[in-house]
Fold this sequence. Notes:
The chain is of the alpha/beta class. Helix content is 31%, strand content 24%. The chain has helices at 5-13, 56-69, 107-114, 146-158, 193-204, 235-241, 257-267, 281-293, 298-301, 317-333, and strands at residues 18-27, 37-41, 46-48, 73-78, 94-102, 120-125, 131-134, 139-141, 162-167, 172-180, 185-189, 208-212, 229-231, 249-252, 274-277, 304-305. The chain has a six-stranded parallel β-sheet, sandwiched between helices. Strands 3-2-1-5-4 form a five-stranded antiparallel β-sheet, sandwiched between helices. A five-stranded antiparallel β-sheet has the order 8-7-6-10-9, with helices on both faces. Helix 6 (235-241) packs parallel to helix 7. It is elongated and about 70 Å long. It starts with a helix and ends in a 21-residue tail after the last helix. 38% of the residues are buried. Mean pLDDT is 87; it is low at 79-91 and 350-354.
Amino acid sequence: MRELAGYLRQWHGTRTTYALATVIGVRGSAPRPVGSTMAVDTAGQVRGSLSGGCVEGAVYEECLRVLETGEAARISFGYNDEDAFAVGLTCGGEVDVFIHRVTAAQYRVIEAALDSDSPVSLVGDLDSGRIAAVRPETIIGAEFDPEVNTQARAMLDAGASGGRVVGCADRERTVFVHSFAPPPRMIIFGATDFTVALCGVGRLLGYRITVCEPRPIFADRARLPEADELVREWPDRYLAGTAVDARTVICVLTHDPKFDVPVLATALRLPVAYVGAMGSRRADRQRREQLITAGLTDAELDRLHSPIGLELGGHTPQETAVAIGAEIIAVRRGGSTQPLSTTDRPIHRTSAAG
């Protein structure tokens, strides 16, 4: 929804009532992920997309109905084998869409969800259409049972979005939680040619990128235009003092034991999504022995992806960066790392990771 921020704020400024349609569930292959939104105002203007075209017309008509009646709606679309021209997804999947009317009374809730500097979950009651913005410390909008707020905060912490059935004081409620968390962090240790290439891949994947390099000769900001932040500090000291979460990925590219071992000893004990380190197989064996000497357990060492990256056969820094990015995706999303042509798993699968 944040991609529509400019349009929605403009509508708020003119006190425009609009219908907001959100993808709340996906089964099988579908063109847009959970959380995709489309908005239709009372003049019939459309902003955003839910499917790339195949069900937009039907969603548009339903938005107009919701605008007229004020009643929230849940609708599903799937492929219709009997009638190729029926409304549905030609890719064969199914999507569930929730539509509700947004009036001036709810602008404050939507504005909270549009604030890109603040983590927030937008919670919608799929029966009543009531909405609330749940932040780590405050709630804006509708008053939900504590169980709903607890679930929303847990999902926000994980950067997850999706539908939930929550047992409340009066009855079970079906809610959709759309989490808006800051971009996940990619922390790269060492400023090498591989780092320059990995910054480009990390930015493509949506990470906020920090490069930590203690050696002044290599810590050159001009070499790293795609890094969001360049830190000149000893790696393990920096990592011990910076904020990480369950979505953070750490890539150690210094290829120097005096940097690698201390920072990996810290990284492998943190609750992060991925830890990888560059080096030959011989260097990896020696590094693991040093980490054992430093007191790391077998379980902690099992978290280390080293040598870093998937075996794609590449040689250049750019090809290596793609291999690292591919491994990060596979680890975070549970990918098989096999060619799609040799597997029969769904191409698009849901994931709780952010």
